[in-house]
Specification:
- The complex is a heterodimer.
- By secondary structure, chain A is α+β, with helices and mostly antiparallel strands.
- In chain A, the strands form 3 sheets. Chain A has a 5-stranded antiparallel β-sheet with strand order 5-6-7-8-9, with helices on one face. A 3-stranded antiparallel β-sheet of chain A has the order 2-1-10, with helices on one face. Chain A has a two-stranded antiparallel ribbon with strand order 3-4.
- In chain A, strand 3 and strand 4 form a beta hairpin.
- In chain A, helix 3 runs antiparallel to helix 4.
- Chain B has a single domain, classed as Glutamine Phosphoribosylpyrophosphate, subunit 1, domain 1 (4-Layer Sandwich).
- Chain B has a 5-stranded antiparallel β-sheet. In chain B, strands 3-4-5-6-7 form a 5-stranded antiparallel β-sheet.
- Chain B is built from 7 helices and 10 strands.
- By secondary structure, chain B is an alpha+beta fold.
- In chain B, a hairpin with a 5-residue loop joins strand 5 and strand 6.
- The chains are: A alpha+beta, B alpha+beta.
- At the A-B interface, helix 1 of A face strand 3 and helix 2 of B.
Chain lengths: 177, 271
């Protein structure tokens, strides 16, 4: 549960960042180009961290079911709908034979005209709890990201400001971007 | 256990036929016509749009549907059966992607649909699906495909095919009219599909629906004005053809001419 994933909501965008390392036994870095970003639809993506096998299995399962919904019903689900579907799957599997040790961040831009807030960002943890917030993070950087977000996040952030905030968080982690 | 249907509905007749399957094929013949044509870089589906009741919303009658980003299907026969089959096929398309990380090949999904149709011809108190399908699309190696299934569960690959009402007439027309040149040109392929459909459907853009799929592009339904442009072009070609034949006839000095073998000059208006 060390690998970090961060999400920042801006004026009309979502910024998603992920740690691309996979570590083992607290000391061994097995991979430095892990992909934790999964496309759910044309305007919605999901970051997932945690147990590597569970991450891929759960993320792909959710992604394909969202595609299936699009095929059957002819419309793409909004990020809000995707997140709620994912949360439901996570919560359902928790009290069953197969639970997934995966923490998720789902973010996207809603194409529904009726949505007032178009840029939508959600975080779901491995126990199936979901929140919507302006800055979300899982893993080690949670300790830094949420604090930095509290201080620096403001309404209608531009992409440059978002990237600047991300740089500060990443610097705290002692990592190089 | 009570409730288990052991009585099969589809059983062999003394002379080796499955009557329920044949009756299902009759149901297909009552459905409105669907035509599929394969080109070198395009696949085209055309369906007859039956007239809807005055108060009915036109757009809810969907005979051409997408199964995945690269596969589309048209059907002829029982609409409700088609809905069920479509749903299962869509699930299978995504399931395949999930398990093997690859989109389905057109042959695979056709085989899946055909297997489903076959299952219902064998026992357990169920009747066969009353529909035939035309499955089109591009495999991930870029090759265009057209397949057709029927209630018995058989499937074949075609260059061009028709199902539903007066399918035989349309297929005969396609056999005469399909050429290599048409295959090479997307424009001509669309026109051929339209011509074939107009053999048995009343001429007019509101009676037909044409959908085309180019390689690596999603299925696109042609707008009414686009269809009308094609129809206008076809009618002009028909007029020119009729002119040419009239002149040839006059040149021959009024001798009796054999009937034309080209496209019919007036679309036969069968109901």
């Amino acid at each position: 549960m060390v690998e970090s994933i961060i999400g920042i909501r801006g004026k009309d965008f979502i910024l998603l960042a992920q740690d691309a390392n996979t570590t083992k036994y607290g000391i061994l870095n097995m991979k430095f180009d892990t992909n934790r970003l999964f496309k759910l639809s044309e305007h919605c993506a999901m970051l997932a961290s945690g147990e590597p096998g569970d991450v891929v299995q759960f993320a792909e399962y959710v992604g394909k079911n969202i595609q299936l919904y699009k095929m059957i019903n002819g419309i793409e689900l909004s990020p809000y709908a995707c997140a709620n579907f994912t949360r439901h799957e996570m919560a359902y599997s928790l009290r069953s034979r197969n639970s997934y040790l995966a923490n998720l961040i789902i973010g996207g831009f809603s194409t529904n005209d009726s949505d007032q807030q178009k840029a939508q960002l959600f975080a779901i943890d491995y126990l199936g709890a979901m929140i919507s917030a302006n800055v979300v993070a899982h893993g080690f950087c949670q300790f830094f990201a949420l604090g930095v977000g509290d201080k620096l996040w403001k309404e209608n952030m531009t992409l440059e400001e978002g990237l600047h905030m991300l740089q500060i968080i990443v610097n705290e982690l002692g990592m190089f971007v | 256990m009570a409730g288990e249907y052991d009585t099969a509905i589809t059983v062999f007749s003394p002379d080796g036929r499955l009557f329920q399957v044949e009756y299902a094929q009759e149901a297909v013949k009552k459905g409105s016509t669907a035509v599929g044509v394969r080109g070198a870089n395009i696949v085209v589906l055309g369906v007859e749009k039956k007239a809807v009741a005055v108060l009915q919303e036109d757009r809810t009658v969907r005979k051409i549907c997408v199964l995945d980003d690269h596969v589309a299907m048209a059907f002829a026969g029982l609409t409700a059966d088609a809905r069920v089959l479509m749903h299962r096929a869509r699930i299978e398309c995504q399931s395949h992607r999930l398990n093997v990380e690859d989109p389905v090949t057109i042959e695979y999904i056709t085989r899946y649909i055909a297997d489903l149709q076959q299952k219902y011809t064998q026992g357990r108190g169920r009747r066969p699906f009353g529909l035939s399908t035309l499955v089109v699309g591009f495999d991930y190696d870029g090759i265009p495909r057209l397949y057709s299934t029927d209630p018995s569960g058989t499937y074949h690959e075609w260059k061009a095919n028709a199902i539903g009402r007066q399918a035989k007439t349309v297929r005969e027309y396609l056999e005469k009219a399909y050429t290599e040149q048409i295959y090479e040109s997307a424009h001509e392929t669309i026109k051929l599909c339209l011509r074939a459909l107009l053999e048995v459907v009343q001429s007019g853009s509101k009676n037909v629906e044409i959908a085309v799929m180019y390689r690596h592009k999603p299925l696109k339904t042609l707008q009414t004005d686009e269809v009308e442009k094609y129809i206008a072009e076809i009618e002009k070609e028909n007029e020119l053809e009729a002119e040419r034949k009239k002149q040839a006839k006059q040149q021959m000095g009024g001798q009796a001419q054999p009937t034309t073998t080209g496209p019919s000059t007036t679309a036969s208006k069968k109901e």
